[in-house]
């Protein structure tokens, strides 16, 4: 019995000794096998040998450089960038100003302004509505003045719209002065008024009614400095606008262009046909 036990123990000792010898001989192979498995399942490793030292006689050791690379997208979880790429772009914000922040003629004189600044569509629509109501209110007076004094109705309406901002200016509301008509030294019996933004010599006429103000505008354009306008065709609103500007009605260098823009944008030339 002792003999059998000793034989088994001896055999086990030989087996363990053989395994230890095998591990000592193949340890390098085991490390390389583990490294290969790591590369396959986890990341790529690039190894760069610095051999430049050998050619120069240097004995510097080889340099091993390991660089890890991102896993393929299929093996990665979702990232914040992935989520952002599928979200819709936010809509551009509207301009926050209200209709009261704009003069009534803004979008007539600058047709691309609303789209450029992303002003809410209802604001230009509201301003256009104010201009159209003004035209409906005063077109009859303008046509009557054209028939009596020969001033194109389109010119009269365009000047009234521009000078009074479609009837909303203080001059129009408080003095029925829709044309910015000033007091003259020879204006005997005229009522005049000065406004805070003007110097003491810049006095403006006060009229009892809009009709009286429109009539004074027609009479003004019969003056000597405007006599050349009477030679123009009543439907030639462009020449009338340029002639009024050249005669010094306003100091704004773009005055004629603004009148033409208003006439064309609001279709005012149709009223001139009634006097042709």
Question: Can you describe what's shown?
Answer:
- Residues 124-272 form the Mannosyl-glycoprotein endo-beta-N-acetylglucosamidase-like domain.
- The protein has 276 residues and is mainly alpha-helical.
- The chain folds into 2 domains: 2-78, no CATH class; 101-275, Lysozyme, CATH 1.10.530.10.
- Helix content is 50%, strand content 2%.
- It is built from 11 helices and 2 strands.
- It has a two-stranded antiparallel ribbon.
- Helix 6 crosses helix 7 (153-164), helix 6 (122-149) crosses helix 9 and helix 7 (153-164) packs across helix 11 (255-266).
Q: Concise description?
A:
The chain is 50% helix and 2% strand. The chain is mainly α.
Q: Name the structural class.
A: mainly alpha
- CATH topology title of the largest domain: Lysozyme
Query: Which stretches are poorly predicted, pLDDT < 50 over at least 5 residues?
Result: 51-69
CATH class of the largest domain: Mainly Alpha
Major sheet characteristics: 2 strands, antiparallel
Which percent range fits the helix content?
Answer: 40-55%
Average pLDDT: 80
Strand order of the largest sheet: 1-2
Give the percentage of residues in beta strands: under 5%
Number of separate domains: 2
Q: How far is the first residue's CA from the last residue's CA? A: 144 Å
Which key features would you list for this structure?
Lysozyme; 2 domains; two-stranded antiparallel ribbon; 11 helices; rod-shaped
What's the topology here?
Blueprint: H1 2-41, H2 52-55, H3 80-85, H4 106-109, H5 113-116, H6 122-149, H7 153-164, H8 170-175, E1 191-193, E2 204-206, H9 210-220, H10 237-246, H11 255-266
Antiparallel strand pairs: 1-2
Helix pairs in contact: 6-7, 6-9, 7-11, 10-11
């Amino acid at each position: 019995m002792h003999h059998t036990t000793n034989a088994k123990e001896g055999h086990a000792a030989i087996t363990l000794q053989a395994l230890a010898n095998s591990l000592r001989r193949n340890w390098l192979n085991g490390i390389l096998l583990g490294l290969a498995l790591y590369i396959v399942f986890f990341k790529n490793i690039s190894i760069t040998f610095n051999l430049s030292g050998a050619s120069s006689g240097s004995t510097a050791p080889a340099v091993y450089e390991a660089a890890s690379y991102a896993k393929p997208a299929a093996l990665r979880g979702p990232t914040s960038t992935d989520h952002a790429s599928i979200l819709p772009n936010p809509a551009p914000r509207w301009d926050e100003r209200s209709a009261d922040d704009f003069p009534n003629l803004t979008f007539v004189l600058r047709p691309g302004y609303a789209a450029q600044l992303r002003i809410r569509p209802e604001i230009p629509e509201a301003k256009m509505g104010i201009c159209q109501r003004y035209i409906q209110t005063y077109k009859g007076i303008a046509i009557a003045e054209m028939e009596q004094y020969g001033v194109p109705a389109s010119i009269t309406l365009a000047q009234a719209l521009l000078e009074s901002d479609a009837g909303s200016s203080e001059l129009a509301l408080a003095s029925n002065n829709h044309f910015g008509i000033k007091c003259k030294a020879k204006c005997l019996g005229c009522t005049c008024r000065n406004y805070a933004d003007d110097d003491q010599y810049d006095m403006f006429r006060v009229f009892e009614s809009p009709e009286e103000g429109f009539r004074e505008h027609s009479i003004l354009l019969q003056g000597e400095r405007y006599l050349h306008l009477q030679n123009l065709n009543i439907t030639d609103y462009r020449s009338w606008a340029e002639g009024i500007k050249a005669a010094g009605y306003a100091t704004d260098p773009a005055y004629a262009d603004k009148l033409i823009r208003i006439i064309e944008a609001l279709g005012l030339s149709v009223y001139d046909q009634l006097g042709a």
